[in-house]
Amino acid sequence: MESYVLGLASDEERREFEKSCAQYPEVLAARTAFELALEKQAMENAIAPPADLKNKIIDKIGTAGKFVPMQPEQVRKISWLKYVAAASVILLAGSLYYNINLYNKNKDLQRNYDSTVAKLNDMDKDMQILQQNPNIRMASMKGMDISPQSYATVYWDSISHDVYLLVNNLPVPASDKQYQLWAILNGKPVDLGVSDIKKERLLIQAKNTQGAEAFAITLENKGGSPTPTMEKIYVMGKL
Amino acid sequence: MLQQRNEKAFGYLYDNYSGALYGIVNSIVTDKEIANDVLQNVFVNIWRKIESYDALKGRLFTWMLNIARNAAIDELRSKGYRDSKKNQPLGENVDVAGAVTGPAINDVGLKNVLTKLKGELRVLVDLSYFQGFTHEEISKALNIPLGTVKTRIRTALIQLRTMIQ
Q1: B63 and B122: one domain?
Q2: Is the pLDDT of residue B111 over 80?
Q3: Is the pLDDT of residue A58 over 80?
Q4: How many pairs of residues across A and B have Cβ atoms under 8 Å apart?
Q5: Is any Cβ of chain A less than 8 angstroms from the Cβ of B11?
Q6: Cβ A47–B22 below 8 Å, yes or no?
Q7: What is the CATH number of the domain that holds B141?
Q8: pLDDT over 90 percentage in chain B
């Protein structure tokens, strides 16, 4: 205990003694008693230092006027601060980048959304044409051997003779090809027009026809063909 | 505001304890001028290291006392001190190891108490506490086993304590 208080103990001895002090109040009490005795001794034998010493010391400390941490701790603290500052800058930069990304994505999404809404509105209009019109007759065109998955529908207005084509499923044609719609009237094919089958409009209006037994779509070169290419019938259906 | 409080606190520490610490420094360094410089170092160290003071480990005075003792010992062991002619001249009270064997005129406080210890115990405490030699150094210088040095110093310090408590 005496060694510890007088600063003569080794590191290990110090650790052990500190444990004892924490564990045993009587050890702590003994230590404190010795410390008090030392202080009393020192005070009783005090020698007054020169009067100007205090000012010299104040000068040496400097005008910072504040208790500052030990140098090593100070360095550690500054490093820690720099580290935090650097980390925040990185975080901020990262967050800015992320935000810009999100903003752009959001703009894209907004555009997509707007165009989807427009499409839906158009679809709505198209459906209204079909639903509100009692004269509409429908022809379901099923996929032929070339393209069994294909499927389209023709709506024919028996009074106005307007023809509307609904593309349910048709493969996108090559850039030099187009789909052509035909009405089979009196056994003969009648051209009702060509289309690129763009996906924006669900319903495509084709040329009028007086009537039809059936409708068919063939794949022709761009511009269409006066007569249908039989080998390239994609869909066909009776009215 | 906080700055003023700290300056005030430091001033208080100086006013109340500089004398006691000066006494300690003097008992190790003995030359007054050098002791002045050492005392300045002591208080500058106290100012700088105050945040490292851990109340769990002991009282504030003990902490300051050890700063004072260490500063004085550092001065003793410094090249400047050893080279200067201000070393205490060897007197009749000094034995081969350079330790004090009898009371000197200006011995006060703990050093005076030291003289009440018997023979080897006194030498050991003087060498370790007042001159800052490590156990290993003492063991080699006096040709005593290290364990013996430790045990005897421990005994000596216990005696010292009973003399002042």
Answers
A1: no
A2: yes
A3: yes
A4: 130
A5: yes
A6: yes
A7: 1.10.10.10
A8: 58
Residues B12 and B71 reside in one and the same domain: yes
Domain limits, chain A: 2-47, 62-132, 136-238
Mutate to test the interface with A, among B37, B43, B134, B155 (most CBs of A within 10 A): B43
Q: Taking CB atoms and an 8 Å cutoff, what residues of chain A touch B39?
A: 49, 53
> Is residue B29 domain-shared with residue B72, that is, in the same domain?
yes
Q: Which of A45, A54, A70 sits opposite B49 (nearest CB)?
A: A70
Q: How many domains does chain B fold into?
A: 2
**Minimum-distance CB partner of A57 among B14, B110, B154:** B14
B114 and B79 part of one domain: no
CA angle A33, A36, A40 (to 5 degrees): 140
Query: Under DSSP, is residue A231 helix (H, G, I), strand (E, B) or coil?
Result: helix
Q: Which of A1, A8, A19 to mutate to test the interface with B (most CBs of B within 10 A)?
A: A8
**For residue B72, what pLDDT is reported?**
95
pTM for this predicted structure: 0.54
- Contact with chain B for residue A13, Cβ under 8 A: no
Candidate from B19, B65, B161 with C-beta closest to A2: B161
Q: Which CATH code for domain A136-238? A: 2.60.40
pLDDT surpasses 50 at B43: yes
Interchain proximity A35–B62, CB inside 8 Å: yes
Its domain, for residue B45, covers 2-83
- The neighbour count for residue B35, using CB atoms within 10 Å, is 24
Interface confidence (ipTM) of the complex: 0.86
Asked if the structure places residue B32 within a domain, the reply is yes
Q: Establish if A73 touches chain B: CB-CB under 8 angstroms.
A: yes
